[in-house]
Every structure is written in C-alpha cells, then in structure tokens.
Amino acid sequence: MEGNAHLNMLNRARLTQRQSQVSEHGLRCLICAKSFGTFAGYDVHMKAHQGQFRYYCNYCGKGFMQKSHFEGHVNNHEGKKPFTCRKCTRGFAYKSSADEHERHCRLSTV
After folding, report:
1. Phi then psi for 8, rounded to 5 degrees?
2. Of 29, 49, 69, which residue sits at a domain end?
C-alpha cells in the first residue's frame, strides 16, 4: 500500500474511532477512560499515549506535552524553586503548586 494511501486509511479509521467515542461525557480515551470536551484535547492526549511528546527532559528523558509541566520537572532536577508563596515565602518548582499552597496558607503577609 502506498504511504499516502495508508495514512489516509489511518486518518479515516481515527475519525471513525473518534465519532464512536462521543458520549454524554464528550470524548473518552479507550486506553485510560479519561474524558475530553474537544477533539483537540483528545488528540494531544492520544499523542502522549503514543509517546509523541513536545518536550523532553535532558536529565532523564521523560516526555511532556505541556511546557509548564516540563519546566517544573526540570526545576526539580536543578533544585530550583522559582515560584513562592506571597504569605510565607515558601518556594515551589511548579507555579500550580505555589498557587495551591497559597490558597491554603494560614500565615499572614509580612
């Protein structure tokens, strides 16, 4: 089978698979059952299952789809904690971790 014909057949199969997964919960991954509201989100998720990552860690080779997750991971390797709580100044490698901590931090701003 020609390369392009094979790719077209795979794309048609993917579209059929996508359409069959649409339910009241949106799209559902057949591998891990995670649900998605858009085809774009589903496609990015499936690329991760297939090992097609956008970012790779130079320290350990782990792959990431989201830049912020990749950067937080590298911060951990390098011992960096660039995100701090404005209430207690505790440092975090991930912005999301700092934000979550700050929401629950009981110390008052100095």
Report:
1. -60, -40
2. 49
The DSSP secondary structure of 38-99, one letter per residue, reads SHHHHHHHHHHHTT--SEE-TTT--EESSHHHHHHHHHHHHT---EE-TTT--EESSHHHHH
Which backbone phi and psi does 35 adopt, to 5 degrees?
-100, 150
Burial class (CB in 10 A: 0-12, 13-18, 19+), 85: buried
Whether residues 92 and 64 share a domain: the answer is: yes
Burial zone of 92 (CB within 10 Å; 0-12 exposed, 13-18 middle, 19+ buried): buried
pLDDT in tens, 6-54: 555 556 556 555 544 555 557 888 888 899 888 888 888 898 889 899 9
d(CA 36, CA 8) in angstroms, rounded, equals 24
- In angstroms, the CA 64 to CA 77 distance is 15
Structural domain contains residue 27: yes
Containing structural domain, residue 40: 3-49
